[in-house]
Structures are given as structure tokens and as C-alpha cells.
């Protein structure tokens, strides 16, 4: 009798769990490919002009990285953009809003690659936003080309 | 006590026969990777769409976008359908759906964006070329420089299918969306014959697993060949029910 009740209880519990579809492996190529496009579009709003030099971001090491180091970099990039650019007033910063595709693609890439984001020292050297984006674009392109 | 037990069995059997308990296969959702997500609920035992809705949560950059999708009957398909507008899609983002009848939860289902992309149906056009062939072009219906990435465009494929109108054999050709056109060589077709052409599109974001709905049909007509020497071939009189415009030139109509 007890066994029957236990089996029924298990059956009820199992039947009430959410029905989910299986999630396939992450398509990095898609995320990085779209990130390249979004960065190119965003950079058009930030030509190398004096005015935009008011926005400075950490000069993160973006060259000569291996795959793991690049994963860490992209996570740091997301944090840096979120804290210093995403909330800025002005239409040209719309690309960096957290609900726009640039940041969403970056966020999804990081969610599946980095468990904890290693934060960098705030005293680190700073560079203008234009240069930051240019370096980032180069790094994303390398990551993308290695997947093709 | 035994009669109560029999009553419970009887009620259970009645419910199995009449109650609507959908499975996850009954709920299908598709997105066009631009702004629209459409869901449909189909079941022979679904009496009415009324009261059925889908609560959808969509995690976006550590926030949650929430939508309510209320089902209504589609008289063409006889399914319950609903749709929501999303501000752009990202390939690996998740949509968590909860199917409700009133406040009663019927099922949960999760969709990953790339897995359920169903591209928009293309709009076809056919023009006769100078050399007598048929140039097929199409509009993929996506707004360029909008919410859809170039990568997505480049990964679209169009599957063209054409054959004799009323016939049973069709020819299928698949080409990348980026080529923008496809030429059907007239010498490979029967002369003085009506052909129909349709197409679907698919994306490599999900290995082309979900084709779009079929495009509207486009019709084109081949003509009788003219000999190089001597007078033109005598044409057979056309049957009374054929349109008078079917003469030397191409007839191209969109049938809807």
C-alpha cells in the first residue's frame, strides 16, 4: 500500500514539472557574426572627433589573446559598456542600451562562456570610446574568423 | 465506497474523452527573426479558443520582458492563434511560455530563438529575358538595415518549385537568397505551355529545418518556337477558354 502511494506521489510530481524543449549547443558563429555587424553600425555614430573623447573606457588588453583570454575580455567589455555607456543620454548611445541587439548578443555570448566575470582595476588607463570600439571590433572579428 | 470508486473512474473516463489536456506538440511557435512571434494551438478536442492564453517571459540582458498572447480562432486553419511583437531577436535567447486556460496552467514550454525561426514568405516575380528565358526574382520581405542582421540575410535560402500547371511533376531549385535571381531556361520547357512557380525560404540559423509558408503562385507561359528560315510556324487555334493574351509574349500573372 505504501509503495503504491509512493509511486503515485512520484508520478504526480514528475507530471507537474515544467515541460521544456531541449536547448541545442550555442551557435557562437551567429552571435559573433551579428556582434561584428552591430559594432560596425555603432561605430558610425562615433567618428574620431574631439567631442566624443569625453567618454573614456578602460584600455582593456584586446590584442594577441587566446580563446580563453578573449572570453574573459568580452565579459569585461560587457561590464564596461554597461556601466559607462548603456545609460548615457542621447540617441547615438542607443546601440549600447541593454535591450538592443549589440548588448544582447554580447550578453548571450558571455552567459554561455564565462561563469564569473573578472573585474579589472578602475585605475587602469583609459581610452576614448571610438578606440575602444575599434579594438573590440578587431578582436571580435578574430574570434569570428576562427570559427568559420 | 465501491460505488464512489466507480463514479470516480467514470468521471475520469469522461474527462479523458472530453477534457482538453494539450501536449507540448499541440503548441507551436515560430518567429520571423524580425519582430513577430506567432503561436498556434491545435487539437481535435479544443472546443474553443476563448480563455486560452500564453504568458511569455523573455530574459533580456538580466531583465525579463513579459508578454501575454491571447488566442483567437483562425478560420482558415481552424487553429487557435496569437502573436506578439518583439523588438528584434537574438539567436540564443529563450522564450518561456506558460499555456493557460483561465488561471489554470495547462503546460510549460521553452523555445530557443534560432530553433523556431520560420522566415517570411518571399514574393516572386517572373520576367521574360531577351533570349526568351524566364528571369525569376524575389523579395524576401525583410527590411534592410533594420532589426535583421546581414548574417541572417546571407544565410537565407530560397527553394523554387515550378512545373506545368495542372501537372504532377515539379522541378525544385534551391539557391542562396543573396544571388537575388534565377533564370529558367526556356529550351528545357515545353513550348506553348502554362507553368506555375512557387517558393519557400529557410535559414541556416536552424539548418534550414523550418521552411516559410509557401509564396503566392506566379504563372508564366512558354511560346511556340519560330523557325530561322521560312515563314513562322502556323499556330493551332487556341481553345475558346484560353485567355486571348496568350500569344507571342510572356503572360505573367499572380494568382492568389
UniProtKB/TrEMBL annotation, chain A:
Signal peptide extent: 1-16
The UniProt record lists the keyword Signal: yes
Keyword Signal: yes
Keywords: Signal
Name this polypeptide is given: Interleukin 13
Organism in which the protein naturally occurs: Cyprinus carpio
UniProtKB/TrEMBL annotation, chain B:
Localization (cell): Membrane
Signal peptide interval: 1-19
One Pfam short name: IL4Ra_N
Domain Interleukin-4 receptor alpha N-terminal: 26-114
A GO term, aspect molecular function: cytokine receptor activity
Keyword set, alphabetical order: Membrane, Receptor, Signal, Transmembrane, Transmembrane helix
Annotated stretches, region: Disordered: 227-256
Protein name: Interleukin-4 receptor alpha N-terminal domain-containing protein
Species this protein is from: Cyprinus carpio (Common carp)
